[in-house]
Nuclear pore complex protein NUP96 C-terminal domain-containing protein (Ostreococcus lucimarinus), 420 residues
Amino acid sequence: MTFAGVVGALEVALDQSVRRASGGLRQACSRESTESKPYGIAATCLRQLEAVVEALANSNGDDVVARDRAAAEVSAWALVSELFAEDKLGASRGTAAEVHRRRAGVSAWLREQVARAAPCEEELFGRRAALTHVAGGRTVSAARAAAAHGDPRLATCLAQIGAGKNVAFYAKQQLTRWRAGSVGKYIDEFSEQAFKLLAGEVERDDDGMGWYQNLGLHMWLAAGPTSPLRDVVKNYLDAVAQQRAANPLPPVATYEALDANQATHLRDVAFNILALAASTEDEGGSPSTAEVRVAFHPLTYSDDVLNASLAWHLFGVLNAIGVLEGEGMDALADEITVAFATQLLGMPERGRCEWAVFVSQHLRDDTRRTKMTGHILRERFEEWKCDDGKIAFIKDVCAVPQESLDDAHALWDVYSTPRP
């Protein structure tokens, strides 16, 4: 990854970073956005989405990996906004209304992900059209297609998806009648498949259905309309374990890369975010550091095990709003911060040391922060020593004390002064 691919996200983080009382910086973010709290998570996610799109627009259009990585980041930020932004109707955190709103938001997000892969013309022809639309969560289109092709009973059932459990009951009755009698062999294949979905018989598709669509079917048809996300995710993971549902594999990393890094257990970062949110839906607690470390592993969104960019930004935002907190989280935050600062220092475009300083200033451990910032200043002294803009950024924006710059300058003088 190049610096151009991360600078947009860094600029978003820059705008919402504030000074810590004990020194250094921290990310300021809240669930709501008011005049007193301008760092609302919905606005932050939107700006991060814009940064991803801009970076992709300025990159090589033929870079398939870059497009896949950008798609993974867009998916993750859109989901964070749906899960953790304030309820626009004012529902309090943890109430039934707020739980229902989050489920509806995730449902809409899943439809957007499924819609990225447009169905081919063959899938929208004849009776197959109704099945295609219901599998994509497009209830109105599914009902319209069934009615247009002479299947009013199926159209009536499709129109009631999400309205209650009656649809599943009637669909099961219909399937039982077909299976019990000889009439079943005359039933159209696609009509039968549609009724099976309506009855909650959601299985993994033979043609390689992705996890977005498969999870959507579990949410829309296999789970009850009021089932909380906790139950939906748990039941889906049970189905994955039984090989009856698509495993939410990382979207970019190949199996060879995962295997080489002993990371074949990893899943898509978007699914991890959903699972973390679902696991704390009732108690309002925080997941363990081990769960978060796995959830934000670089290979969950990238093909580069050293790419800590998205992990740093996601962790910072979710930690700021209280989703990721508790014992060990400060240490994990510092672990991710060191990884990202090191990544920035190792990029092929030199002359950007001030951004590595900016990231290192977010370290929570005071001693570690002072040491790492001092190390960067000494190692990249030639980059900033005569650049007034970089010096001002390091001092005024990154909150680095003058004495740290003086120490780096003094050490440089010691080693650069000719000895007799």
